[in-house]
Amino acid sequence: MSTFGLAAARVIVAAALDTAHAEDLKPMAVIVLDAGGHLIAAEREDGASNKRFEIAHAKAYGAISLGMGSRALMSRAEQQAYFISGAASAIGGALVAVPGGVLVLDDGAVVGVVGASGDTSDNDEKVVIAGIAAAGLTAQPD
Amino acid sequence: MSTFGLAAARVIVAAALDTAHAEDLKPMAVIVLDAGGHLIAAEREDGASNKRFEIAHAKAYGAISLGMGSRALMSRAEQQAYFISGAASAIGGALVAVPGGVLVLDDGAVVGVVGASGDTSDNDEKVVIAGIAAAGLTAQPD
Amino acid sequence: MSTFGLAAARVIVAAALDTAHAEDLKPMAVIVLDAGGHLIAAEREDGASNKRFEIAHAKAYGAISLGMGSRALMSRAEQQAYFISGAASAIGGALVAVPGGVLVLDDGAVVGVVGASGDTSDNDEKVVIAGIAAAGLTAQPD
Amino acid sequence: MSTFGLAAARVIVAAALDTAHAEDLKPMAVIVLDAGGHLIAAEREDGASNKRFEIAHAKAYGAISLGMGSRALMSRAEQQAYFISGAASAIGGALVAVPGGVLVLDDGAVVGVVGASGDTSDNDEKVVIAGIAAAGLTAQPD
Description:
By secondary structure, chain A is an alpha+beta fold. Chain A has helices spanning 6-22, 52-66, 70-79, 81-90, 121-134; strands at 29-34, 39-44, 101-106, 109-117, 138-140. Chain A is globular. Chains A, B, C, D: This is Glc operon protein GlcG.
């Protein structure tokens, strides 16, 4: 078992939201899942729309399910949209193939995943990467 | 719109987990939804089993969906199990009718709901009520 | 990360089926999931009915999702059927609350889960426990 | 009823994984279904991402459901994406229309299907075909 857990997840969420505020981004949802795809922590800021948690979750869940960041899933979707729609159904519906779902690595092993939604996909990914770095872990966005 | 939001949700989650620790309860998931049933914040402690977030969510989501605490839903289930199973299907499956899903009131108005899962249902409810009190709000467990 | 993986899962499946044959049980499905609830290995014997894999899976998946063997889930179902039906919906439908879903522990940590279906629930559980023992691991059926 | 069953499925899975290792492919999930679309055997190797079983299953299940290999489903998707997305919904979501889902024929009759996921779709298909050949059966990838 990795020691990746709630303590690291809190650092990631806080640092991701700090980064979003420093860059004056739109209200954001940030979510952290463990290596099995199960939620550790999530926050949705005031003013973020109703389902931003679900979108952030689906970026993260799709990424950890298929073993690549959601930016790589977007590349696949651009080439074979039918693969991504089929995969989404096969894994239970939670797969959004745009940037913002980033694998978390510790000593080269995938220990979890972080997702964000609220601003542009590129900005969502940026705050996630900042959050992961703040926890002293490695981000793999694609 | 109520001012109930992420600031209050953080106080609730932290106080709920502090209460669980003070009483030496099992690892816990705690979740806060707004009045529309949409997630504001959630944490699942290290050692809580995979789907404790989903169970805590289903207590809270069932409660806010039907406008009563999940203890009241349990009473209804004891009398009319077929009502609760039908209602669960009707609202999309997320309804667990045991204590631990507690409405949050501010000045008499429902502004959100809190759910917990990890220890006994009665203990789950106790930590949720403590969390809501710590935020200066009113808990309605049934 | 635990070292529990395909090598151990193969030992468990083979030993479970050997035990079923030695006791002249009905054709059986046996399934092994990792700690995150994801499939490692499964076999359904010739003559086992169409959906025995799904039943064995739902015993195992329910157990690992809630952190207790499916015998403990049965006890809960006998007391509060509405909890189990609600929990089944909340975790996505795969929860069968009868014996035969057994947690796998290594040095006290849950590293996976094994499920079986084909004969009586008690016999299904017996072959699973024999399989886990053959791999040198600890079975927790409730 | 065909004699196609667990004995042949074990040969297929083992030979498919041997082929993957000989070609130094990424960790792989391989799955065998009977003519009714019901699981006979499956293995997911250590290091394959969480949902590789589900993807491999959806290639195989889509193929046996529509009576053609998943390479033929990909051709259809390239021409009529709306047919494939509609068919996926209609059969319950488990249809991934890329190579790697291959029908198994014995004396000209379809007796089952094999799916794999882990490396490129072309490589996934190659290991499946090698597995089917090792069992003395005929592969129909499209």
